Amino acid sequence: MTPVAWMVAVGLTGWAALAALGGAAVNPEATFGLAAPLVSVVCSWLVTARIHAVDPARVTGAMVVALGAKAILFAAYVVVMVRGIGVRPVPFALSFAGFFIALYAMEAYFLRQLFAGPGRSVYRE
After folding, report:
1. How far apart are CA 22 and CA 24, in angstroms?
2. What's this model's pTM, rounded to 2 decimal places?
3. CA dist 92 to 15, 47, 67, 100, Å?
4. Which of 52, 77, 102, 123 has the fewest Cβ atoms nearer than 10 Å?
5. What would the 3-class secondary structure string for the chain be?
């Protein structure tokens, strides 16, 4: 499976587990908590992988610009969800933080593999 497929699969599996265990106590907040981190990590992975394929020297600069843009977009997203849509803050914040951490940890793992190069181990031997 590709990194994007793994990230989507893990995100949706986590959401399904939360929905099954928590039911109405966590939904729709868990859905909204998954949406932004999943879209963000998939987009950032696709852009970073494409830039790395074309010009690896530009990756760091692009990632710094993306970090600033994502910080602004996430802040706006949280405000819109809590004040505009009216989701319950605690389940939303917990699901958002959990999915954010899990999905960005996955992206970090895949980035480490990407930067190591094909056929090279990312672990010291």
Report:
1. 6
2. 0.88
3. 12, 27, 22, 12
4. 123
5. CCHHHHHHHHHHHHHHHHHHHHHHHCCCHHHHHHHHHHHHHHHHHHHHHHHHHHCHHHHHHHHHHHHHHHHHHHHHHHHHHHHHHCCCHHHHHHHHHHHHHHHHHHHHHHHHHHHHCCCCCCCCC
Q: CA 82, CA 106: separation in Å to the nearest integer? A: 27
CA-CA distance, 53 to 46, in Å (whole number)? 11
Contact 1, 9 (CB under 8 A): yes
d(CA 112, CA 30): 29
Tell me what pLDDT residue 122 has. Answer: 52
